[in-house]
Amino acid sequence: MAAEDHELTISRYINAPPARVWTAWSTAEHLEKWWIPAPIECKVITLDLRPGGGFETLMREGGGAFQPHVNGCFLEVIPEARLAFTTVMSAGWKPIEPWLALTAIMSFEAVGKGTQYSARVLHKTESDSRKHEEMGFQEGWGTAINQLAQLVEGPV
After folding, report:
1. CA separation for the pair 4, 2 (Å, rounded)
2. What are residue 84's DSSP bridge partners?
């Protein structure tokens, strides 16, 4: 089975330099504004940007109680260039059983005055990848990237 069968990808040009896109990714109050498609709200619990550091967000819809969204562990952190996390471990490399096992690798490539932002999401199996796609990967991650672009392309 080809590796591509386990992967989903999305890429978009953002008209802001990688430093601004990185700040939106690496600052909790900024991440909460774009990480989950609106009108769903996001709350960042942990954003420990270092290999082995925790990444935990909650989500809330319609003013209800916040529910688990992502609980993961950062694998690679290269400011303004690359960020990788997995949901099969939590902070401190502790194995966990996620509702959806994945490893996400985001890249921030300077292109002209902007950033080519790409996300490559790897799944354990082809069926997990298909499940994620059927859940609306392109629409959900695409909406979140649009929200990211709106945040960083605006005035400082």
Report:
1. 5
2. 76, 105
Measured CA to CA, the distance from residue 84 to residue 52 in angstroms comes to 11
Peptide bond preceding 17 in cis form (omega within 30 of 0): no
Task: Identify the band that residue 5 occupies on the pLDDT scale cut at 50, 70 and 90.
Answer: confident
Helix (H) or strand (E) holding 7: strand 7-14
Q: Has residue 1 got a pLDDT over 50?
A: no
Strand 89-90 to 94-95 pairing: antiparallel
Please report where in the chains the tokens 């490399």 appear, as a residue.
93
Number of other residues whose CB lies within 10 A of the CB of residue 68: 12
Residue type, 18: P
What is the C-alpha R_g of the chain? Answer: 15
